[in-house]
Amino acid sequence: MDSEVESIRNWFAYIAEARKGYLDTLGKLDSAELTRDRGASFPSLYDIFAHSQGALYFWMRDAAKFPFPEQAGDANAPPSIEVLRTDEDYIQTQIRRVMAELSEADLSRMIARKNGVGSDHDCQVPVRDALWHLVEEELQHRGEINALLWQINVDAPIYNWVSWAHTAGRIKDPQP
């Protein structure tokens, strides 16, 4: 049985792999379709994906034991698949660093969350809870993106845990 750190590492490896499929699918949409307001949790497919990137960035930055390097690029660039891809590469690089350094003891460290954007009060959140929250956040918004893609007759890039685990060698074929 995996330790909790190994389970978390596996979930974030799975999430990173699945997000590639979403970027590929979103990349096939024209700009108008990618940015059209759909009345969802965030207006457009672009906005939903960018929001989930922001959640990954801010929680991981706060969970990290090292300062994140400055991110290259133009923060005021118009929405595009290229911006999403650049941001995703940066975020996934930082997540891999956080995961490589993560220890069981780190899971109990506290992250200060101030009242304001993303929090309705001051509180301390254990790293463990922040990381599992990100898994939940990812699955929530992935499902939302799936539904919106299906509404425009675009196949969602379903990539489930069992398929990933089998490909990653975590699930073995029965021996004859």
What do you see in this structure?
- The chain has 176 residues and is mainly alpha-helical.
- The chain has one domain: Four Helix Bundle (Hemerythrin (Met), subunit A), CATH 1.20.120.
- Helix content is 57%, strand content 5%.
- The protein contains six helices and two strands, in the order H-H-H-H-E-E-H-H.
- It has helices spanning 4-27, 31-35, 45-63, 81-101, 127-151, 161-167, and strands spanning 110-113, 123-126.
- A two-stranded antiparallel ribbon has the order 1-2.
- The longest helix is centred in the last third of the chain and has 25 residues, at 127-151.
- The model has no long low-confidence stretch (mean pLDDT 92).
Topology:
Layout (H helix, E strand, L loop, with lengths): L3 H24 L3 H5 L9 H19 L17 H21 L8 E4 L9 E4 H25 L9 H7 L9
Antiparallel strand pairs: 1-2
Helix pairs in contact: 1-4, 1-5, 3-4, 3-5
Keywords:
Four Helix Bundle (Hemerythrin (Met), subunit A), two-stranded antiparallel sheet, 176 residues, 6 helices, mainly alpha
Q: Can you summarize this structure?
A:
With 176 residues, this protein is mainly α.
Count of discrete domains? 1
Anisotropy-based shape: globular
Give the helix level as a range of percent: 55-70%
Strand order of the largest sheet: 1-2
Strand coverage percent? under 5%
CATH architecture: Up-down Bundle
**Arithmetic mean of pLDDT:** 92
Please, how many helices? 6
Highest-level CATH class: Mainly Alpha
Q: What's the number of extended β-strand segments?
A: 2
CATH H-level superfamily title: dinb family like domain
Cα-atom Rg, whole angstroms? 17 Å
Note the run of SSEs as H and E. Answer: HHHHEEHH
Low-confidence stretches: none
